[in-house]
User: What shape does this take?
Amino acid sequence: CGSKKAAETTTSAAPETTAAAVETTAAAPETTAAATETTAAATETTEAAFSGTNALKLQPDPWHRPRLNLYCGGRSRQNVGLYDTLEFRVRAVNPSAVPSDPRLKLTRWDRSSPDVSLLPYVQGGVIDGQWRLVSIPVADLKTADWDLADVEMLQWNLDSLSRGLYIDDIAARDTTAVAVTGVTLESDRALRVHFSERYELTSVRSRAA
Assistant: This one.
């Protein structure tokens, strides 16, 4: 597999605890892609990048849909359903030949998300020669029979005029603040604090004397 930039997550800072004993109630989130594989209609390029040196160049035609394979290189299918938004940067390869309705879907071998248009989710509502942020709520990609717990691939649409896009900084993000869901008095010296999901341990300060 080639390697497109690793996906990342962002979470709100964890609440400060006042106890020596802390327990969380959710499994650690899993990022969407550190090892990926491109196809003939989607290639890694140094022609343009929003950050770093490489971006993904989508080159669709009437028969070939650009695809980014997440399920490769020994990695498991990716649980995108844990996150709140799927984000990436986009710009047109040729600002005078911009795809009229670029679309994206997530797939598994036997499942597919809705094929959503990027335009309602792109910064400014337009794709042109500038890098713009696309932020798609993960809820808009889920279906009644697929919660996106095991995504294999990102797929963009065909294009009869072969109009291309650059894509960069693909990330699944957790934007929901961590909340305290319960507190249990363990002793006169310790509390057990329950959180809604795993927090960043380095953000917690010890109150022990």
In short: Residues 2-35 have pLDDT under 50 and may be disordered. The radius of gyration is 20 Å.
